[in-house]
Every structure is written in structure tokens, then in C-alpha cells.
Design a protein that fits this description.
The protein is of the alpha/beta class. It contains 22 helices and 35 strands.
Amino acid sequence: MTSVTPTTPPNTRGGNEGAPLPEPLWRPGSDRIADAKITHFQRWAAEQYGAPAEGGYAALHRWSVDELDTFWKAVADWFDVRFSTPYESVLADRSMPGARWFPGATLNYAEHALRAAEDPARANDVALLHVDETHDPQPVTWSELRRQVGALAAELRALGVRPGDRVSGYLPNIPQAVTALLATAAVGAVWTSCAPDFGARSVLDRFQQVEPVVLFTVDGYRYGGKEHDRTETVAELRSELPTLRAVVHIPLLGTPAPEGALEWSAVTSGAGTAAASGDSGPVFEQVPFDHPLWVLYSSGTTGLPKAIVQSQGGILLEHLKQLGLHCDLGPEDRFFWYTSTGWMMWNFLVSGLLTGTTVVLYDGSPGHPDTAAQWRIAERTGATLYGTSAAYVMACRKADVHPSRDFDLSRVKCVATTGSPLPPDGFRWLHDEVADDLWIASVSGGTDVCSCFAGAVPTLPVHIGELQAPCLGTDLQAWDPQGKPVVGEVGELVVTNPMPSMPIRFWNDPDGSRYRDSYFEMFPGVWRHGDWITITDHGSVVIHGRSDSTLNRQGVRMGSADIYEAVERLPEIRESLVIGLEEPDGGYWMPLFVHLAEGATLDDGLRSRIKQTIREQLSPRHVPDEIIEVPGVPHTLTGKRIEVPVKRLLQGTALTKAVNPGSVDNLELLRFYEELARTRK
């Protein structure tokens, strides 16, 4: 990457030194601040561990990164983490990569996820609330979830599954997927999953790396009002995964189990070859703190997806902090996030069980039977924290959806968004159309840590277009190319101290070189995430997009997210993609690709309005050289716009080398850009 001294983009929000602080969109009331779990934690940590009693969140955050060991010890104590053998120290080695957390400790993630089931008063409360496209919620109680996990864990052991073995799921967002994950963790095996809309090649690119011994699978799934058969794909997976000892069939569409596969009902009844666990509950294998919990995958747009391994203890502590303090979740809450098993947000959602919270699982299209579908689910499930994508919020705004008018959302206290930065118009729309006393939490993190670097803080105000603050225990900074921290200007997102949920390694990376190259090459010993951010002078965070797809004209840098935010306010623009291309002759070509809304035409009038919007809201230097209509914008399988592979295509790289075909939602769309590169030559 070319090192250029960053210049503050003209539209950087909240970072102007000396400028009066804009009035926040929302401020928590005194009752909400007093009741927040993070407030109680701070008061307790001040008494027990010397945390600052005054100074609010900013002081607590400073302490959490300055006294990193003490902070994480306090988190473990506050949430009563069960160490079956004690730890020798909190952080034996701070080096990145290679930090060693809680050496000597043993524990089990699944044991903590099912703790609420041990309380007789809660046994019949709802642990999981499953919703499909009928939008009719189906409950699973804590006692039933615990019973199924115990029976399945016993069955896995009977099948020869041992700690460290990999167990895979080709499953939608259904209760059986949660049961399978928890049973896998209970045994000390390593979970990994893909959503059933992934094609066979995409799944094999992931699962073949980790060589699973068990595969949980469905016969198909329902999406957009249609049934999608997956029996042929499953047959291909079975033939191409030679390490499989067992396949467990979940008949979502009513198909009988294929030859040699086990029925889900048989392996969770407790009456099979494994002894029923009975009232004693699941047997939880006590594993070292850094024992692998699951393998997540990067999008893999330019090669095989990175197989990211995170630990039982690291995820347990990070998610307890994130969900129990930042998201303010507890037993009285219902936690709904629109996601699939192929995205880290599903793992994060399941961890809602750690705080005794009811987890809402929606399996279906985000917009079926209409754009307002997710709001209807939030109403019917009584969700208190509802998470979705920024893209869905903006789609609702364009479709003239009126959530508070059409649905009873009185229980929703927070709407959280991720996947891409929430544009200012999205903040305003949620405030105006959901509730004026709504806590809006735009959050940002990554699959790499299965958590957030910055985002939700229930005791802080919300400013339009900004994430509230860096998270506790996360030493988040913006650095210039020389490695100096900057405030009020754009810099690289870095984390200068380890987090427990950082990968313990990548799979099949014996010398750790791929792991090091991914995060520590630019600034050795410091995690560089690959996003441009601004940390404002009032402590909030603005995300500008990926730093590897940054637009740079005449020294002025701007993230692509800023362009999308401005352009996609126009009703004619469904979606856009902007690329900045360094030309061989030293020039710079910046085309803007637009996917138009139905009935819209890219004429001179619309071109002029697009250019005027960018010139006035962003900068004259970022007016595109060309505006080109495209049949669609390509995305990764988890819905993120594909920028770098398109840039490589436009530079003349062959399609097969520019992108991993199995990582793209619609490969045909990329042929347009390949052909454009050919004609430009």
C-alpha cells in the first residue's frame, strides 16, 4: 500500500478541532444510565479493583486499557466465570500475535451458555425463539435446550468425537444449529458452519481445510416464499469430505434421511447408543482457556478463505463483556439479530445465552413477504435489542416503511446495525420512524475477533453518523502511516493491545506467517484491521470504509462508504460501487458504477445530480470521471460489496485470479467489469 500522509476528508464528522460539539441525536435519561449494567459494573470495579468511580465511560475505558490484566480479571469475576482449575495469571504474554490469556485455567463455553437452565425458577423460561417466514414464533425452553445438548453431546462421544475434532454444520438459523454448536463445545470439539445458500464449492473451500468428522445438514431450506432443495449439494459434500464419520440429517423439508445418515430425532432423544444424560444434564469437557471453540472464515474473495480459530475462554470473556455490558443484555431481554450461520453475527447471537437472554432465531428472507418483515418479527417476538444491517435500514427508508406506525415496537430499546457504516440519513430515519427515545448502536468489528472494536455504550449519547465509543478493553487508535496516533483525522484502525477473542491461529498455518501477514505486517506487534477511521475529539468513532479500497486524489483520501452514503440518498440509485484506479501513465481513473432502481434511467439529468451531490456533500475532487450503469453490484456471501476484486479486474487481472468464484453471490455480475477492462484497453 502506498503511504500517503492522511488529510482530513472534507466530510469527516465530529473531528474539527475547536468546533462546537453538535447536539446529539439521542441522550440516555438518568434512569437508563443508573439502571445500565455497565454503571453497576463500574461502581463494583471501583470498590473491588480500583477502577475510577467518577468520569463516566471515558474514565472506565481508559482504565480498561491501561490496566488490561486487572480489567479482564474483573470481567471474569463480575460474570462469575467458572474456572474448574485456577489460572496462574491473566495475561502471561502480551505479544501480538501470541498473547497468552489465563494460562492454567480450564473451563467450558457451553456450560456457561446453559447456566440459566440450572435455575429451577428459569427451567421453563424461553431460551430460543425460532421464527420462519410464517412469522409464527416457536419457543424452546432452557430445560429442553439443556436436555437436547446433553443427549447430543453423549451421542457425539459415542461416535468417537474427541476434544479438538471438528464438527461441521450446513444449516440455516434454526434451533438445531444452536444445539449442535453447544453439544460440540460441551465435548471440547471445534464447531464450524456454513449457511445452506452457500454452493458446494464455497462450503468445500471452507470445510476441506478443517477436515470435519461429523456433518449436520438439512435437506433444504425456505427463503423468499420458496423451498430450496439441497439434497444434491449434501451428497456432493459427503463425497468430497473423506474425514466424515457421521452425517446427521435434519428434515426441514420433510425428506427422509439419505442412506447412511442419522436422523436428528434419534441423536437428540437420549435413547440411542449413547446413555441418556437424564437429570444430570450434559457432561462438559473442561478444556484449557485457549482451546479452540470454533473456526470462522474470511470472505475469501481473492483466495481460499482464511480459517480463523478462536478460543473457548477468549470468546466467553469477550462476549460476556460485549453482550452483558455494552449491549446491556440480561435475563429479561430478547435478542434478535438478522443473520445466517455463515456470518460471525450468528455466533455472536448464540452467545446471548451467556447472559441468560432469550435468543431470537429467524430463518428466512429479510424482506419476505415485504420490506417491513424484520420489524414484524421484532414485534411478534418482543425483541428488546434488534440488530440488522445498515443496508436493510436504508432499504426500509427508500421503501417508505413506517415501523412505529405499523408495529408495536414498545419493547425495542436498542436498534443496532453492522455490516457497513450506517449513513447519517439512517440514524435520522430510525430516530423519526421507530422512536425518538431509541438507542441507535452502529457497531463495527470483524469476523477476525468475532466481536466489536467500537459501538454500543448504553450510558453515552448518540451522534449522527458516529459509533458511540471504542469498547472496553480495546485499545483502539487511528494511526497515520508513520505509526503515530491521530485524533480528528483519518487513520488506520489499529488495536495496540491484545484482545482475548483475537485468533489463537489460522488453521493450516503452521508457522503463523499467514496470520502475521494479515494483521501485523504494516505495524509489527500492532493489529492493523484494514479500515479507515476517525476518532473524534469527543471520543466517538467514524468508519470510512476499507483502507485497501480507499479513494485518493491529489492527497485527499476518502473511504468508499462516504460516497455510497451520499449517492444512495438519491431515490433512483439502488446501490453503487466506486473504484479508484492508479493508471500506468500516472493518471487516476475513478468510475462510479450505479445499479438503478426500477423504472429509473441514467440520463444527463441524473448524472448531473449525482455529480452535484458528491461535489456539495463530499469534495469536488471526488466527483467520478465516469458514471456507468451496471446490472448489479457484486457482494460476498455475507453481503459486503466487493471492491478490491473489481479493482483488480479493471487493472486487467483475469477473473479466475482476481476473485475466488465461490466467495461471490453472483459471479456473472463480475463478467461485466471484466469486459469493461477489456474494452478500455
